[in-house]
Amino acid sequence: MVRAALPGRLSWQAATVSAVREETPSARTLILDIPDWSGHLPGQHLDLRLTAEDGYSAQRSYSIASDWPGDGPVEITIQRLDDGEVSPYLTDVVQAGDQIELRGPIGGWFVWRAAQPVPVLLVAGGSGIVPLMSMIRDRGRRRARQPFRLIYSVRTPQDACYADELRRRVRDDPGLDVHFVYTRKAPDGWPAPPKRIDVATLNSHGWPPDFAPDVFVCGPTAFVETAADILVALGHDPKKVRTERFGGK
Amino acid sequence: MTELDGNSLAGDLAEIFARDMTAARFTCGGCRHTGAVATLRVWTPAPGVVARCPRCGDVLLRLVHTGGSVLLTLGTTRLEVPR
Amino acid sequence: MGIISRGFGGRRRDSAPDLPPGQYLTHDFPVLSAGPTPRVPLDRWKLTVATETGEKHTWDWEQFTALPSEEITRDIHCVTKWSKLGTTWRGVSLDTLFEDVETAADYVMAHSYGGYTTNLPFEDLLDGKAWIAYEFDGEPLHPEHGGPARLLVPHLYFWKSAKWVNGLEMLVEDEPGFWEAAGYHMYGDPWSEQRYQGD
C-alpha cells in the first residue's frame, strides 16, 4: 500500500527491530529499520506505541542514541525501570525481527545544531546519556571543531552505557573530554569516594561561564534540577542551559 | 505519578500543529514568565497531560486523548482536533 | 493501524464480571496527579461549604474530625480504566456535613488545595452516596492519595473524588471543573462509560 504522508504531519509507522545490543545489565539498545524516516537532529526523540492482543496500548517517548548520517538504522537505548510497564518489555522481551510502531523524529529545543560555534557541556544522569550520546556521535561524524565536555553520573562503573565507545572517542579525539561521577561505587583506584554531582564537579569539569557554552542536562528530575541550579549559580546564562527530565527514578 | 517537562509534549503537539512546538515560547498568564515550551513542568499520568508554568505553577495547557480526537485546552479555550 | 506487539501484556490486569465496561482490575493503588502534591499541615487545614447566597460554613481539622464518621467499603473506578474493588475508608458523610446548610442550589463545585476543581450534581452527594474521607485502610489518608482529606464519590469516575478537598461551593448552574473543562464528561457515570464530553 502506498501511503503518502502529508508534509510535516507526524504519522505512526511500523519499524522493524533489526538487532539488539546489551549496553549494561539493565540497558539495551534497539536498532530499528524505519522505512520512512526523514532524518533526525541529535537530541530528538521518537514515540513508541505498544499494543497488546486485547487492544490495550501504551505509548512512551525515547531519545534517539544514534546520529544520522543520511541513511541507515536508528538506535534507541532503553533503561529498564523495574516497576515500569513498557521498558521491561523493550529490554527483556523484544527480539530482532519484531515490529514496533513509532513516530518521529520529534522535539526541536533539546537539540544540538552543529552550526552553533560555541563549546558544549553535556551533563548526564543515568540514562540521560542517550540524547547526549547522539550529540557526541554527530560531532564525531562531522569532525566538528566545537569542543565537547561530558560529565556523566552513574551509580557504579557497570551502569555506564557506551563506556568502551566513549573511551575510544576520548582517545582519538582531543576535542572530547569525559568525566565520570560515581554515586554508589567507584572503580578501584578512583581518586574520590562515591558522591553526587556537586559544585566542585561542574566547576572543574564544565566550561567557565565566560565561554558561554551550550549546556545540555538530561536525567531524572531531581538530578536535572540539582545540576541546572548549580550551573546557574556558577554564572551560566539560564537560557543557555537546556534541560530534559526523564521519568522514573 | 511522574513529573516531566515540556520536551515530552513534542509528539502530541506535533500531531496537532504539524511542527515542533517545544522551541515555541510561552508567556504565563499568571506571572508573565516566559520560556520555551520545553521548560514547562508536565504531569502525567492523569486523566490527561497537564503542563504548568515552571515559575508559578499555573496551568498553561491540558491535553486529553479521547477515542477519536485530541483535546488541547489553553487557558479556557479548547481545541478539538480529530485524530 | 495498531500492529500487535508480540508478547506485550502491559500492566498486569484482570477482567472481572462485575466491573463497569472498559475497566480492568488493579490490586495496587495507582497515583494520578495533575500537579505537585500539596502538603497541608492539619493546624492550617480548613473545609468550607459556601452556599449560593454567600453564606459560609467552615470546619477546622479538630471540628471536622469530631463529626460523626463512618467506615465505607466501596469499589472505585478510575477513568484511566483501572478499578479497585472493596476499598475501605473512614470519613464524614456529606449528609452530616450539610445538616445545617440551607441551599436551593442543584450543583456543587468541589475545590482543592493546589487549585483542582470538579463539578457534581448536589443530589449525587446526598443520601449516603458521598463522604469526605480521611482514612484509607485504617491509616490516615496519605498525601499522594489526597490526604489530609478527599472527597469520596465512589459511584462516579474517581476524578470526581477530589483529592485535598478544601471547599464545596453551591452552584445554581452547572459549571465545568478542571478535567471537565478539558473535555471530560460533566457527570462521569462509569456504568454508562461517560468518560468524555459527548459520551
Automatic annotation (TrEMBL), chain A:
Residue ranges crossing the lipid bilayer per the database entry: 118-136
Keyword Iron: yes
Protein name per UniProt: Oxidoreductase
Keyword vocabulary terms for this entry: 2Fe-2S, Iron, Iron-sulfur, Membrane, Metal-binding, Transmembrane, Transmembrane helix
FAD-binding FR-type domain location: 10-112
Gene3D superfamilies reported in the protein's UniProt record: Nucleotide-binding domain of ferredoxin-NADP reductase (FNR) module, Translation factors
SUPFAM superfamilies, per database record: Ferredoxin reductase-like, C-terminal NADP-linked domain, Riboflavin synthase domain-like
PROSITE patterns (UniProt xref): FAD_FR (PS51384)
PANTHER family assigned: NADH OXIDOREDUCTASE HCR (PTHR47354), PROTEIN RFBI (PTHR47354:SF5)
UniProt keyword DNA-binding present: no
Organism: Actinoplanes ianthinogenes
Cofactor(s) essential for the protein: FAD
UniProtKB/TrEMBL annotation, chain B:
Domain of life assignment: Bacteria
InterPro entries in the record: DUF6510 (IPR045423)
Pfam families in the record: DUF6510
Protein name: Uncharacterized protein
Species for this entry: Actinoplanes ianthinogenes
From TrEMBL, chain C:
CDD domains associated with the record: arch_bact_SO_family_Moco
Pfam families named in the record: Oxidored_molyb
Residue ranges annotated for the Oxidoreductase molybdopterin-binding domain, each copy included: 35-179
Region of interest called Disordered, as start-end residue ranges on this chain: 1-22
Transmembrane segments: none
Coiled coil residues, start to end: none
Origin: domain of life: Bacteria
PANTHER family on file: OXIDOREDUCTASE MOLYBDOPTERIN-BINDING DOMAIN-CONTAINING PROTEIN, PROTEIN-METHIONINE-SULFOXIDE REDUCTASE
Protein name: Molybdopterin-binding protein
